[in-house]
Amino acid sequence: MKLNKDNVVLGFIGTGVMGRSMALNLMKAGYRVLVYNRTRSKAEDLIKQGALWKDTVADVAKEANVIITMVGYPRDVEEVYLDEKGIINNAKPGSYLIDMTTSSPMLAKRIYNAAKDKGLYALDAPVSGGDIGAREARLSIMVGGDPEDFNVVKPVFDAMGKNIVLQGGPGAGQYTKMCNQIAIASGMIGVCEAMVYAKKAGLDPTTVLKSIESGAAGSWSLSNLAPRMIKGDFTPGFYVKHFIKDMKIALESAKEMGLKMPGLELAFSLYENLAAEGEENSGTQALFKLYDR
Prior knowledge:
The protein contains 14 helices and nine strands.
């Protein structure tokens, strides 16, 4: 099957910080988009711009032939896909299901198999790039699933991202996202420590950034989140609570593989301390607050 903007009815479930921008970019690309979110107010901007509101997950599944989910936690993914009133039990045979939530690789495999039994095509496709990447349609999209299904929905991915890679079979996208989160976790510690060190040394952290962000220390977190730390801007591009969820998944996967992850374990403990101080709904750059005291 070849998908185009004339024969795709695209359902988007989960219009939070990331999902809202992703759905809007699909609309800008010319797709007809149905939306559902547990809190309708978070979808109002999209509705005003032409998205069609649906009252339930099942309503989306019954009408759309490409369904994207961007929800919070693995338990939400499980409910949205596998519940009696969920996507798999209500979607039309031949539909494509794309979970872009960062979730469990094992759950991704379960969804793939359950979808296959119903004549549906499932891919796991978590993303990286934060709120900026979502807004600017330049997300990195890591995909797990069958190559033929990936090729069919590639134009949909193209409307949301720039670096789109099929990593392997079911679950491969989620395993790749765990690699991404593991690298970010320890990196965020380094960014926070570098910025507080600059401040305590009497340097201007913004000027320090000009020297170090384009050298060997350069990273997305350094270039995009360190400036927010310096300004005291801790609004979420990606929530602390969701990063804790991701690190927990990565630690559980590592344990299954017999791997020790001391850097990840340290970052996890620091972020749990941060959440305990009431910062679970702040952006991940709020880790800086643990240092800047």
